Amino acid sequence: MPDAEMTALLQAVLDEVCADLPPWDTTTRERVAERLRNLVRSGRSSVDELKRVGGDALIRAPTMWP
User: Fold this and answer.
1) Is 7 in contact with 40 (CB distance < 8 Å)?
2) Were 6 and a residue from 2, 17, 21, 34 both cysteine, which residue would form a disulfide, CB within 3.0 to 4.6 Å?
3) pLDDT in tens, 19-61
4) Is 53 helix (H, G, I), strand (E, B) or coil?
5) Residue 65: exposed, middle, or buried by beta-carbon count in 10 A (0-12, 13-18, 19+)?
6) pLDDT at 34
7) Helix 47-59 with 26-41: angle, nearest 10 deg
8) Rounded distance, CA 43 to CA 55, Å?
9) Which region holds residue 27: left if phi is over 0, alpha if psi is between -120 and 50, else beta?
């Protein structure tokens, strides 16, 4: 579980990356948040990398097809 500082960083990056999303688009916001959590779990947590991964999650919609 991330500490308070990491949680605040993740929240700030999530808010920044998702700033242009409509408020009702919670599915996309959740997808971005999950990608950010996965990145931190893998041991990587630089601000630049978090923003890059968050941005990638916005433009790469999930698909059911391999």
Assistant:
1) no
2) 2
3) 999 989 899 999 999 999 999 999 988 999 999 999 999 887 6
4) helix
5) exposed
6) 94
7) 140
8) 19
9) alpha
Burial of 63 (0-12, 13-18, 19+ CB in 10 A): exposed
∠ Cα 56 12 42 (to 5°): 55
Per-residue pLDDT at 63: 55
Q: Which two tokens mark 55?
A: 């941005």
Alpha-carbon dihedral sign for residues 59, 57, 44, 42? negative
Provide the residue count of the chain: 66
Residue with tokens 């700033």: 19
